[in-house]
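With this grant's support, we have paired protein sequences with backbone structure tokens. One protein thus recorded is set out beneath this paragraph:

_____
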Amino acid sequence: MKHHCEDVHGLAAAYALSALDPDEGAMFAAHLPRCEACRQETAEFAATAARLAAATAQAPPTAMKQRTLSAIDGVRQLPPRIPVTAPTAVRGGALRRRAAPLALAACLAVAAAFAGLAALGHQEREKLQERARQAEQRLDDVSSVLAAPDARTVHGRAGNGAFTTVVASDRQNKAVFTANGLPAPAAGKTYQLWLDHQGTMLPAGFIHQDGTVLIDGDTAHAAAVGLTLEPSGGSARPTTPPLLLMTLPT
């Protein structure tokens, strides 16, 4: 997918994930030194991808290393598999290229989570498997929005100093919210997201710390996204002044 010069700012997520084609990558790399907002956004997306990939990492039990090393001599080395190259479909090709890095991150995260399952109890294995599935789904949801051809980005700063970014896709009716520098909430409190629908604030999920979350609800028809500090468990309506009220990108 080719972008006009005015759309270059929208390439930050794909650039951070090494998902641009050579021409787009060169164009954005030349633009980056001249744009502080894009430098910040690129760094945020790179850090977020790393956090998401590590979200389900599980350190294997100490004894597993020794068992693995002891078994190596008795395991026959298999020949490498050489996949057959298949033609790539033109339709949706750019989307798949941009989503590939986060899909790879999901695979790595899931592999790390499953590495120690054999040595754990049945209940613990089920819990880790569910965590891995949830993390993979979150990565798929976030990557689909970042890779959307109509993805648009807007930046903001919350009243508590946190830097925020929203990437929205009207075609998918989805948006992701990223926070950087979000102070830890007080005990018994949590950060809640809101969508402004014609002046009515509707609950749109939570963000508990720095990172990226998928915004819940109908984002394509919302005017703005808000952030408030609410009691743990959330509220049906905002109970505190907004820390952020940011117009959604169009």
